[in-house]
């Protein structure tokens, strides 16, 4: 039974043509596990995210280890960029509409809702009139079916210093590049000896399909205040058994998500907005590059949620992308920022690093190559050192050490998504850990 058959059965007028692709994707997830098989000879250690959050519900040790004394608001403010000026907010663009905006290439996939700091040596936003506070980040390295995608970022703070533009932006809407009359995807405009690139983009929709069983029982006079009971009663009076409906329901992933947030002690999550919540989950759960692309390209919010749910039952580790040496386990990830375990930060050269924070790395897997420095620190109150893989000397991130007394954790690592790969194995055994060793660590 597929999505189209299911929703047409109850005459829900919410099917989108692009969901044919989602059907193929969901069937592929259920039968293809090769995306989740680790490459290389090293065995993977560590539990699945699902087993972590399930065990957390009954584990006082996990709650103790995540009691940070650090203000997680600070990293999200990107104070290392200096003082910036606030700008007016813009209206969201209509899905399906086509717009001409300035664009810039980006090395990784960015989901709507993310905060992206930018340092541009080419102030292309100054010449774009009404859209002067919008910029499109294009994912040239991640084409999908010969199409190029990206995300529109709205500028909310900016300043120009010596022809360098410093921005704080918020990713808002996904888009697809629209070829121009001559087939070109971008146009360059020369101003003051510099090339400014523009492109026509088509805003992609976010299709929110309702829970079919909930809608089926909305007019049932016998319904109660218990949602689970209502769904069970509705299933008993419908054609299909309840497990069929559950395949198209996001309740399971929402329950796991709530335990996951308790585990990380994160409160600033857009739980009231299913669209933004689906993107937050995609950003903060361990995913391979292939999985990240699948989640970005689908227009269906429900499909995105169900895909995330299918990834929760796999063991995950961070490995060096160059030599495949295991660097860290996802059991040691934590939220150093109020926005989650993963965030984007900009270095003085303007390169944006997507960074995952973990309490510790595998012993003897890394070494530092520089002296501690507090200059341009993404985490105020912590010094940083460049960390490399012990096996191949590939840059894998940074080691951060507290420079003030009372800060917990005393040290942690920020792993660079560009040089770290996510390796996944089969379903793992229940989570086991020693709370004392974690307490000593922080």
TrEMBL record:
The keyword Zinc belongs to this UniProt entry's keyword annotation: yes
Domain of life: Eukaryota
Organism this protein belongs to: Aedes albopictus (Asian tiger mosquito)
InterPro entries: CULT (IPR034750), Yippee/Mis18/Cereblon (IPR004910)
Protein name, as recorded: CULT domain-containing protein
Any single Pfam family the record assigns to this protein: Yippee-Mis18
Keywords: Metal-binding, Zinc
CULT domain span: 315-424
């Amino acid at each position: 039974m597929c999505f189209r058959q299911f929703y047409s059965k109850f005459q829900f007028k919410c099917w989108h043509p692009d969901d044919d692709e989602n059907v193929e994707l969901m069937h592929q997830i259920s039968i293809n596990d090769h995306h989740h098989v680790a490459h290389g000879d090293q065995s993977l250690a560590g539990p699945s995210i699902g087993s972590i959050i399930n065990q957390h519900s009954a584990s006082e040790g996990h709650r103790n280890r995540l009691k940070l004394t650090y203000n997680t608001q600070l990293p999200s403010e990107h104070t290392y960029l200096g003082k910036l000026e606030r700008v007016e907010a813009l209206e969201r663009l209509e899905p399906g509409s086509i717009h001409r905006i300035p664009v810039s290439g980006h090395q990784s996939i960015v989901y709507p809702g993310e905060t992206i700091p930018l340092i541009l040596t080419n102030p292309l936003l100054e010449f774009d009139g009404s859209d002067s506070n919008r910029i499109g980040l294009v994912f040239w390295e991640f084409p999908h079916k010969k199409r190029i995608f990206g995300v529109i970022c709205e500028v909310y703070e900016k300043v120009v210093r010596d022809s360098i533009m410093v921005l704080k932006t918020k990713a808002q809407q996904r888009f697809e590049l629209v070829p121009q009359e001559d087939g070109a995807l971008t146009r360059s405009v020369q101003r003051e000896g510099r090339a400014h690139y523009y492109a026509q983009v088509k805003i992609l929709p976010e299709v929110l399909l309702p829970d079919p069983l909930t809608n089926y029982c909305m007019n049932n006079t016998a319904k109660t205040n218990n949602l689970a009971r209502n769904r069970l009663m509705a299933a008993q009076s419908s054609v299909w058994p309840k497990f069929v409906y559950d395949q198209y329901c996001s309740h399971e992933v929402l329950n796991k998500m709530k335990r996951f947030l308790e585990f990380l002690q994160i409160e600033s999550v857009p739980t009231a907005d299913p669209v933004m919540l689906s993107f937050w989950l995609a950003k903060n759960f361990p995913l391979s590059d292939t999985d990240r692309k699948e989640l970005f390209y689908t227009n269906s919010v429900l499909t995105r949620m169900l895909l995330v749910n299918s990834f929760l039952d796999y063991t995950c580790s961070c490995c060096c992308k160059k030599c495949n040496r295991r660097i860290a386990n996802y059991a040691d990830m934590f939220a150093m920022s109020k926005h989650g375990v993963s965030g984007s930060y900009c270095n003085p050269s303007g390169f944006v690093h997507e960074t995952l924070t973990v309490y510790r790395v595998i012993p003897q897997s890394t070494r530092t190559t520089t002296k501690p420095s507090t200059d341009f620190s993404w985490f105020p109150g912590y010094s940083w050192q460049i960390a490399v893989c012990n096996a191949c000397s590939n840059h894998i991130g940074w080691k951060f050490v507290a420079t003030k007394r009372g800060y917990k954790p005393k040290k942690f690592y920020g792993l660079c998504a560009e040089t770290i790969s996510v390796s996944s194995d089969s379903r793992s055994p229940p989570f086991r850990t020693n709370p004392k060793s974690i307490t000593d660590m922080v």
